[in-house]
């Protein structure tokens, strides 16, 4: 196995775990905010995360890469993060989305830039997803996520958590 193969293994493992986490965040938010008008917007983002997740599930199979052993944890942690932020109100839910999607957008951008033309298809997929994550971020800004009480602290805590999760899911 070459160094390059190992990188792709890590990329696909962490991306699959991240998309599961993202989908579960939105499911947690919808569980709390289902009767709020903002639920429709969250549902749209969740549908896109499902597409992203399905794509990485197929890629794990194609490249014969094992998923993260922490998958059950990502499943629970994602839902909990979504439910807890939504319980603090729609603006806090949107603040969570800003924080998470900023990190994921940056993460896909870094991955895409490290791939060469041999992996042009995967690179194109990552760039498409990057753009969609940044659209989610913009949606959350439009819904006043930055006006949530304690926004700067919340953003900071969630982003540290996301970056730690990325490091873990690459390896484990
Ligand atoms: Fe996604
Ligand atoms: Fe997203």
Number of domains: 1
CATH class: Mainly Alpha
| H and E string | HHHHHH
The CA-CA distance between the termini, in Å, is 18 Å
Radius of gyration: 16 Å
Bound molecules: fe (ii) ion
The total beta strand count reads: 0
- Quickly give the structural class: mainly alpha
Shape: globular
CATH architecture annotation: Up-down Bundle
Q: What would the CATH topology be?
A: Ferritin
- Given as residue ranges, the uncertain stretches (5+ residues, pLDDT < 50) are none
- Annotated CATH homologous superfamily: Ferritin, core subunit, four-helix bundle
Classify the helix fraction into a percent range: over 70%
Mean pLDDT: 95
How much β-strand is present in the residues?
under 5%
How many strands, what sense, and barrel or not for the largest sheet?
A: none
Distinct helical segment count:
6
């Amino acid at each position: 196995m070459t160094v390059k193969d190992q990188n792709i293994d890590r990329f696909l493992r962490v991306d699959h775990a991240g998309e599961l986490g993202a989908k579960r965040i939105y499911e947690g938010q919808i569980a709390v905010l289902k009767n709020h008008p903002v639920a429709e917007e969250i549902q749209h983002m969740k549908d896109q995360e499902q597409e992203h997740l399905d794509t990485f599930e197929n890629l794990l199979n194609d490249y014969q890469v094992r998923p993260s052993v922490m998958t059950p944890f990502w499943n629970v942690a994602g839902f909990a993060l979504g439910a807890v932020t939504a319980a603090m109100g729609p603006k806090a839910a949107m603040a969570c989305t800003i924080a998470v999607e900023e990190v994921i957008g940056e993460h896909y951008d870094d991955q895409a830039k490290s791939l060469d033309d041999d992996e042009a298809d995967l690179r194109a997929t990552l760039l498409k997803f990057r753009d969609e994550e940044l659209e989610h971020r913009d949606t959350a800004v439009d819904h006043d996520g930055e006006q949530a009480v304690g926004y700067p602290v919340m953003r900071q805590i969630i982003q540290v958590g996301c970056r730690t999760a990325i490091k873990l899911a690459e390896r484990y």
